[in-house]
Description:
Number of helices: 28
Mean pLDDT: 81
Largest sheet: 5 strands, mixed
Distance between the termini: 67 Å
Radius of gyration: 30 Å
Number of strands: 15
Strand order of the largest sheet: 12-11-13-14-15
Structural class: alpha+beta
Number of domains: 5
Strand content: 5-15%
Shape: globular
Amino acid sequence: MRFEPAFLDEIRDRVPISSVIGQRVSWDRKKTNASRGDYWACCPFHGEKSPSFHCEDKKGRYHCFGCGVTGDHFRFLTELEGVSFPEAVERIAGMAGVPMPARDERAEAREKERTSLIDVMELATKFFQDQLQSAAGARARAYLRDRGLTPATQQSFRLGYAPESRNALKEFLASKGVEKGQIEACGLVRHGDDIPVSYDYFRDRIMFPIPDSRGRIIAFGGRALSPDALAKYMNSPETELFHKGNVLYNFARARKAVARGATVIAVEGYMDVIALAQAGFENAVAPLGTALTENQMELLWRMSGEPVLCFDGDAAGLKAAWRAADLILPTIQPGRTARFALLPEGKDPDDLVKGDGADAFRQVLEEARPLADLLWMRETQGGVFDTPERKAELEKTFREITGRIRDENLRFHYAQEMRERVQTFFGRARQKPLRAGEWEKRKPGAQGPQGQGGQFAHPGAGASRFAVSESLARSALVKRGGGVMPLREAAIVVALVNHPSLIDENFEHTEFLELSHPDLRRLHAIILDALAHDAANDRTEVLAHIASAGQSEVWQRAIALIRKARLWPVLEEAAVDDARDAFAQALHLHRSAGTLHKELKAAEMALATEPTDENYRHLVEIQTQFRDVQATEALIEGFGVSSGRAGRSF
């Protein structure tokens, strides 16, 4: 049943939202101010011990600062209690003492027709499930088994098989009394004036039932088993039930997981969603074979203010990420944005969890980047901004990008953020003029101080170094196993191996060094083990220890990363004084960033628990310090401030 907006506004205005929510929660006495209509409680959507769930009668809205759920009277009832929207409206109207509007017989007839079509789709779903378990479905079962899907997972997602027949489904439904018009209205057969006899829409395909937001099957996706099929994947046609751009696969199941505290993840396909669910990630959804639409993004924002958009690690996946960034940019708002996770090159989520396990995908999620980072990376990667014209062009590009944001306040902050990044970015090119004869020493391949390879390819080339590192960060060189190998962490470990005297000199810091990358943590443990066995007196002994532990390949990747970035002060041929300075600077920056990260998390939690002005000011202060450290790291490629020595960028 459809309702006029004026009717919904009236009953919302008559019933304080606290009256609706107060039936399901206990208000916190310390933080609640009932006289002002300001209420706090422990969130009913996720488990917590301190109240971060807030509702305000004046606005008629609720919001949880812990899990991000937000909404009005009706959404609270539909999301928490699982009632339908008409049922929620009827309940609020009863509380308001307002009679329900007169019935619209035509609208009710359409709703009845939709219900009957849902029944037909349920019959079709059961038919496909039965066919999968029959003799005809043997090849389909083998395919699913080869893809690593357990019988329990297949049953959970109600996977099925459409037999290689023109009439199998049509005849089955007819035998159940389903009318020809209903079969056609569900999109289960191909029909039309140019088709004398209708025939089954799906044939010889593995079937993926597509549920709506209430878990009712409204469409199907089919994966061809024959290599000669014209389309590997195909979806049901548009019907009264199904509009492809308005649906996310696995939405209903993911919404429940998000209500338990998870963050919704958008991936690219059915199999990715199913493989992730089998690996323990029940909070994944997918668009249906097309690029993400505005309506699908709205569905994501209904679940979470900051969903993670996950894209395959290939050129097509990166282009899809760019398209998604452009799609959401105009409509982002405070508390309504997205983060972007880029998978290792050549892998999709299905490949990653099967080959490397759930922790590898969890690492990808942890490294998801905000929209601002993605836009910056896209516009600067691989670029050389060594002339005033190119710099001006980059600034113009970011002005145009940020100008597309509709929210005035957020547009201002994005413009400010990009200006600061550009200033920091170009600040790297402001180096001292070279003295006579120095330029020749710094040409590519020339020798710098103490015989090391020169750092500079061009005076002012530092202006493009950040872009180089962005490209490098996504390359196959560093995207293996545990995800991106952080350049700063790699340099710290490489310096310790190439110059073992640094281990003893900095043992109190080296022993408890916190590293995020699992491969680098293993190398760190080997270094400490070598020291414990008096096998860290020189580089050869440490390398032998690494080889005996089977980690030579990891060591070679770390070295390749350092050489690719031309960070010569930590390499073997560097003078120990240069290595000592570079290591000290990198270690200082690493420890500062780690400390600030912990303080930032604590400040965010404090503000969520107790949103006072003091806690807010403290959070802003920590955020400013954190941005300063990040800006410094970007400026020096993760290593600390310039020492002023010729040929160095540290």
